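ok new one. same drill as before - structure tokens go in, u give me an amino acid for every spot. 324 of them this time. try not to just spam alanines like last time pls lmao
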């Protein structure tokens, strides 16, 4: 399949007075049309910064210092601001974790959605309004004609997130980057939104990068998974392969910490310790100080990627279940 998005060796650093913080350090992945990629990992692993870097939304002192981001063959790293403005919102849309980062509390939903249409398309205002109404209907908001006149505070958290998704869909973009958009929602609303996202991705053939720390959400939504730790992708592959037969001990640890995977009465097995500070990473493999499979060689060098079919991992001691 032809990649809609291709990220190659992306590096995003934040300058400090002591040493640069390597928030994203050599990340590579691709997403094809109609495909959903789950980008998962603990808080601070670099997931969100990867999404912001793709769209050129990293503010100083952060900057992309290396790598390539190809969107439909067009290089986005270093592209002029005018080029990025034409692409953002129209061809690439982003859904943020907090819908109030997308919605202006003092403007009606109609005003915000219509302006989003007119920012990219020279179309009559009545037609822009009709597109906004239809987009609200697509994401399951009842009585969309009446709700256009409402304000963000008149919607529940789940409905506000649906509005944010509707805004992302206004131009039927080729790629959507969703930054943990269901984290703050209850399980029932989360399930409804995941169903709608999957349906819409299939209907419009959009590529989707779904950023999350919740492997349970990714399991029900994604086609492929990329697991991040300390600014790098440590394992990637098909969702069933990764979740059923993880190769990297970090992926195994994330799965063992899920309540859904434990038998009744069995204690969960959390990953010991904390992720290292970006300015104090251990030598060699960044995960070795928390890893049950670590050996002396893990401190000597950073493991290089190992590929087996569509699977890839960075580990000197991959788990036997993956090889089986």
């Amino acid at each position: 399949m032809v990649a809609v998005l291709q990220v190659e060796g992306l590096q995003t650093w934040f300058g400090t007075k002591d040493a640069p913080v390597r928030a994203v350090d050599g990340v590579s992945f691709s997403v094809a049309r109609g495909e959903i990629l789950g980008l998962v990992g603990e808080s601070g692993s670099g997931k969100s910064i990867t999404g912001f870097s793709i769209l050129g939304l990293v503010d100083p002192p952060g900057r992309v210092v290396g790598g390539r981001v190809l969107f439909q063959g067009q290089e986005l790293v270093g592209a002029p601001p005018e080029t990025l403005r034409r692409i953002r919102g129209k061809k690439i849309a982003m859904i943020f974790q907090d819908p109030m980062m997308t919605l202006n509390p003092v403007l009606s939903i109609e005003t915000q959605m219509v302006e989003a249409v007119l920012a990219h398309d020279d179309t009559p205002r009545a037609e822009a309004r009709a597109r906004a109404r239809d987009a609200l209907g697509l994401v399951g908001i009842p009585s969309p004609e009446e709700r256009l006149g409402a304000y963000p505070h008149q919607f529940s958290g789940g409905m506000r997130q649906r509005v944010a998704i509707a805004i992302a869909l206004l131009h039927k973009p080729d790629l959507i980057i969703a930054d943990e958009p269901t984290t703050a929602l209850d399980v029932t609303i989360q399930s409804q939104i995941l169903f709608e996202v999957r349906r819409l991705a299939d209907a419009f053939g959009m590529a989707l990068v779904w950023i999350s720390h919740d492997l349970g959400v990714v399991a029900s939504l994604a086609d492929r998974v990329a697991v991040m730790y300390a600014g790098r992708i440590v394992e990637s592959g098909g969702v069933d392969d990764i979740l059923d037969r993880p190769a990297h001990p970090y992926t195994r640890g994330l799965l063992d910490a899920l309540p859904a995977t434990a038998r009744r009465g069995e204690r969960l097995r959390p990953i010991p310790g904390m992720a290292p500070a970006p300015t104090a990473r251990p030598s060699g493999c960044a995960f070795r100080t928390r890893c049950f499979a670590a050996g002396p060689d893990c401190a000597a060098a950073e493991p290089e990627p190992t590929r087996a079919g569509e699977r890839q991992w960075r580990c000197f001691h991959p788990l036997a279940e993956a090889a089986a």
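Residues 3-91+173-323 form a domain with the Rossmann fold fold (CATH 3.40.50.300). and btw The mean pLDDT is 89.
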